Amino acid sequence: MNTELQKKIMDAFIGKVVRKDLAFLVRGNLPVPTYVLEYLLGQYCASDDQEQIKQGLEKVKEVITNNYVQRQDAEMIKGLIHDQGRYRIIDNISVQLSERDDEYHASFANLGISHVPIGAQYVKQNPKLLSGNGVWCIVTVGYIPGENIKVRWEIQTLKPIQISNIDVQDYIAQRQKFSTDEWIDFLIHTVGLNPDVMNRREKFICLSRLLPHVENNFNLMELGPKGTGKSHIYQELSPYGVLVSGGDVTSARLFVKMSGNKEIIGLVGYWDVVAWDEFEQQKGTATDGKLIDIMQNYLANKKFNRGKGTHEASASMCFVGNTKHTVPYMLRNSHLFESIPNSFIKSAFLDRIHLYNPGWEVSILKKSSFSQDYGLITDYIAAVLHELRKVDYSQLISQYADFSKTLSQRDMEGINKTFSGFIKLLYPDGKFTDEEAYEIIDYATECRKRVKDQIYIIDATFVEQGIAQFEYTKPNGQKVQVETLERLENPNIIIKYSGESTPEPETEPEEAPAPEPVKEEPKLTSKHIDIRENQKGVSYKSLFGDYMRTAKKMTIIDPYIRAVFQIDNLVDLIRTFIESTTELEGLEIELHTYETDEKRPNLIDNLDQIQDDLARYNIEFTYAFDADHDRCIKLDNGWRMVLSRGIDIFEKFDRFSLSNQRQELRRCRAFSVTYLEE
User: Partners of 223 in the beta sheet?
Assistant: First the structure.
C-alpha cells in the first residue's frame, strides 16, 4: 500500500482499522475466526505506531493465552473457575430451549459443558445463539459451591464478539475521500488479501464474494481450483455469516426442524449468509430430496414450507466448490456445473443462481497474496454491510441500459441484484460515473450469462423457448453485446446445446484424393477489436501477423519501451514481424519511444544490443526518443494499428511458467486495437 493511501485510511477510519497480518501473528494454530482476533486487535492495536502495536500484540496474546479455551485445556479452565469462583473465557456458545425446565440452556463448544442456564435477556439480545452454529462470546462463568446444587456453572456476563453499533452515514461520508481505485484496494486489504498482486478483474471476482453480505437473498455460485480462497470470506469475515460443509446440510438444519408440534427455524432464519463449502460431488453422500425442493422454492421466493407454516427469510445462499477439470475441457465435453452434486444439476435450481463467479481466473493463494497493510476491522465492515442490506440501488440500472426483451425475469433479477450490490460496495454514496456504472453492468451481465449458457447445455426445454440475447442499448443508442470471457478465449470450441443433433456425414463412393487446396490469402479489413481483462488466447501473431505478411518495414511508436519486460515485448514483436513476413531480405524496423535524460544511457545500451543482433540477419533497426502519448504500429504496406496501451498488453507472468514461452497462455490487460488502411 502506498504511503498516501495508508495515511488516508488512518485519518478516515482511526480506531476502526488494523494491520491485516497481525491476526496471523497471534493466531498460531488456534481455530479462532479472524473477526474474533481482529475484534481484540482493534481494542489494542488500532494504530500505526510500531511501539503501540508491539505492546498491543502482547496484550492480545495474553488475552488469548489466558482466556481463550482450548479443548485440551478445558479441565484446567474448569479448575480455575472452581478455585477463583469466576473466570472470564472466550468460547463458542450455542443455546437451546429446554421445554421441560422452561428455560434456556447454553453449551460451551471448547469448555465442554452444557445445560448451563442462561438468562432470557441474553437470548433476546442475541437470537443467533439459538441458530445451532453458536456465537463467539466473551463470557464470565461462575461456580456455585454447596450441596444439592443441580447445575454448578452459571453465566454471570455474556458479550458477543461483535460491534454493538456503527454509524453507516459516517462510513459513507469517509468513502468520498478516496478515489475508486483506492477504495477497491482498501476493500481488498480489508478482506485480508493483497491488491498489488491482482488486476482489476481479479479484484472484482474477489469483491463479488461480498455481494451476499450486502444484498438480501443473493444466490451466488463459485467453482474453481483448490486454494484460491473461495470460502475465505464466508469463514473468516463476518459474525453475520456461517460456513457449513455441503455434505452435512439437511432440510431440518437449514430451514425448519420439527420438535413435536413445534417448528424450530434453521440457519436461514438467523444468518445473513449461509455458505455451502465443498459443494461438489462426493462419493457415498446422498442429497436429501426434500432439501432440493425446499431450496428451489426459497431461492426463488424467499419462502420455505415445512410442517404447517410458511416462513420467510433474507439469508443469501452461496455455493462454493472445486472444479475437477480445466475450463476448455468442461466447455468441450460437459458444462461448467459438472463438479456440483448431480442432484443439483437441474435447470429449476440453476436458473435461480444470480451470479456464477469464475473462480478459475483467480490465482492460487501464496504468501504474497495476503495483505500486510491496513484494512477495516472485519467486525466493523461486516456490521456496515449488514446495515447496507436495507438499501436497494437496483432501480438505477434502467438509467444506463435497456436490456433485450429476450432476457427472462430471473436473468434481469440476477443482473439487477449484482448491480445493486456492487454499487453498495464501491459507491455507497450513490455517486459514480457512467464508465463505472457500465463496468458493473457488464460484469453482472456476464456472470448471469454464464449461468444461462450452461442451462442451455443441460436442458433442451430452455433451448426450445429461445436463446436469450445478453445485450443492452445505451441511452445514446449504442448496442452492447456481452460475452463470457471463457467463450472469447476458446472460440474454436463449438458449444452444443441440449437437444441439438449433429448431422451424420453422408457416405460417398471413394474417389481419388483431391489435390491439396491452395491456401487462401487472409482477407484484411479495417476494424476495431477490444480485448477483455484476463482474456487468454491472444498473441502478437494473432493480432498483427496477417497484416505484416506483405510488409518490409515496421515503425513502432510507443513511449513506454523502458523496463526489462517492455524490452522483452519489443523483441517478441520483432520476432513476430520476422516470422510473419513473406520476404526476409532487407527488413527495416524503426522504434520511436521515450526515456528521461538520466535513464536514457541504460536504455540505449539495451537497444544497441538489439540493433547489433538484428544486423547479423541483415535487418536494419533504428530508434529515436521522440514519442509522445500516441501508440501505434505502422507498416509500409499501408496498414496502421492504433494501440490503446501500446505493446504492453500482457499481465505479469512467472519466469518458469509455460506462459513465458507462449503468449497465448498469458492473461491480458484490457486493451483495444484499431486497424486502419491508409
Answer: 321, 358
Per-residue confidence (pLDDT) for residue 48, from 0 to 100: 72
- Please compute the mean of the pLDDT values over residues 470-493 and round it to a whole number: 95
Residue at 124: amino acid letter: K
Total residue count of the chain as it appears in this document = 678
Q: Is 208 helix (H, G, I), strand (E, B) or coil?
A: helix
Instruction: Give the H/E segment covering residue 670.
Output: none
Task: Tell me what pLDDT residue 429 has.
Answer: 92
The residue with greater pLDDT, 518 or 536, is: 536
Residues 6+ apart with CB under 8 A from 521: 549
**Phi, psi values for residue 188, rounded to 5°:** -65, -45
170: helix, strand or coil:
helix
The Cα–Cα gap between 140 and 91 comes to 11
For 47, the grid coordinates are 494504530
Helix H, strand E, coil C: the string for 222-265 is EEECCCCCCCHHHHHCCCCEEEEEHHHCCHHHHCEEEECCEEEE
| Stated pTM of the model | 0.81
User: 10 Å Cβ neighbour count for 496?
Assistant: 12
Looking at residue 533, its amino acid is: E
Say if CB 184 and CB 207 are below 8 A apart.
Answer: yes
Task: Please provide residue 447's backbone torsions phi and psi, each rounded to the nearest 5 degrees.
Answer: -70, -30
Are the C-beta atoms of 33 and 134 separated by less than 8 Å?
no
Give the pLDDT score at 249: 80
Cα distance from N-terminal residue to C-terminal residue, the chain: 46
Among the residue ranges 118-132, 413-427, 531-545, 627-641, the one predicted with the least confidence is 118-132
CA distances from 116 to 95, 99, 150, 562 (A): 9, 14, 10, 70
SS3 7: helix
Specify burial of residue 214 (Cβ count, 10 A radius: 0-12, 13-18, 19+): buried
Closest CA to 159 of 39, 268, 26, 20: 39
Count CA atoms within 13 Å of residue 322 on its CB side: 10
Residue 146 backbone class (left: φ over 0; alpha: ψ -120 to 50; beta: rest): left
Highest mean pLDDT among 345-349, 441-445, 661-665: 441-445
- Measure the CA–CA gap between 628 and 626, rounded to whole angstroms: 7
Report the b/e string of 323-343 with b at 16+ CB within 10 A.
Answer: beeebeebbeebbbbbbbbee
Residue 512: per-residue pLDDT: 54
Packing angle, helices 378-388 and 168-175, rounded to 10: 100
Q: Which of 172-176, 242-246, 305-309, 657-661 has the lowest mean pLDDT?
A: 305-309
Phi, psi dihedrals of residue 380, rounded to the nearest 5°? -70, -50
Instruction: Output phi, psi for 357, to 5 deg.
Output: -85, 130
- pLDDT-derived band of residue 501, with 50, 70 and 90 as boundaries? low
Place of cell 475465505: 232
Strand 402-403 and strand 620-624: the pairing is unpaired
DSSP letter (8 states) at residue 265: E
Largest CA distance in the chain: 106
Q: What is the pLDDT of residue 632?
A: 96
- Count the Cβ atoms, other than its own, within 10 Å of residue 631: 21
- CA atoms within 13 Å, Cβ hemisphere of 603: 22
Rounded-to-10 torsion of CA 392, 393, 398, 400: -170
286: which DSSP letter? P
| Residues pairing with 263 in the sheet | 258
Q: What are the CA-CA distances from residue 459 to residues 319, 346, 347, 450, 462 (Å)?
A: 21, 8, 6, 15, 6
pLDDT of 226 above 70 = yes
Strands 620-624 and 17-19: unpaired
Please tell me the distance from the alpha carbon of residue 411 to that of residue 419, in angstroms, as a whole number.
12
Q: Which residues contact 637 (CB under 8 A, 6 or more apart)?
A: 547, 550, 551, 552
Q: Is the pLDDT of residue 222 over 90?
A: yes
- What are the respective helix, strand and coil percentages of the chain, to the nearest 5? 40, 20, 40
